[in-house]
Amino acid sequence: MATIKDVAKLAGVSIATVSYVINNTKPVSPETRRRVLEAIAKLDYHPNVIARSLQGRRTNTIGFVISSQVRRLSDPFYLELISGIADEAANQGFHILFSICPAETLEEVELYRELVKTGRVDGLIIPDTRLNDPRLTFLLEEDFPFVTFGRSDKEKDFPYVDVDGFTGIYLAMEHLISSGHSRIAFIGMPSELVCAGHRLNGYKAALSEYNLPFDQNLVVEGDLTQQGGYRAMRELLALEPPPDAVVVCSDLMAFGAINALREQGLKAGKDIAVVGFDDIPMAAHFNPPLTTIHQPIYEIGSRLIKMLTTILNGDELEEKHIILEPSLVVRQSSISNG
Amino acid sequence: MATIKDVAKLAGVSIATVSYVINNTKPVSPETRRRVLEAIAKLDYHPNVIARSLQGRRTNTIGFVISSQVRRLSDPFYLELISGIADEAANQGFHILFSICPAETLEEVELYRELVKTGRVDGLIIPDTRLNDPRLTFLLEEDFPFVTFGRSDKEKDFPYVDVDGFTGIYLAMEHLISSGHSRIAFIGMPSELVCAGHRLNGYKAALSEYNLPFDQNLVVEGDLTQQGGYRAMRELLALEPPPDAVVVCSDLMAFGAINALREQGLKAGKDIAVVGFDDIPMAAHFNPPLTTIHQPIYEIGSRLIKMLTTILNGDELEEKHIILEPSLVVRQSSISNG
DNA sequence: CTGTTAGCGCCTTCAT
DNA sequence: ATGAAGGCGCTAACAG
Question: Could you tell me which residues come within 8 angstroms of residue A312 by beta carbon, excluding any fewer than 6 positions away?
Answer without folding.
Answer: A58, A122, A123, A145
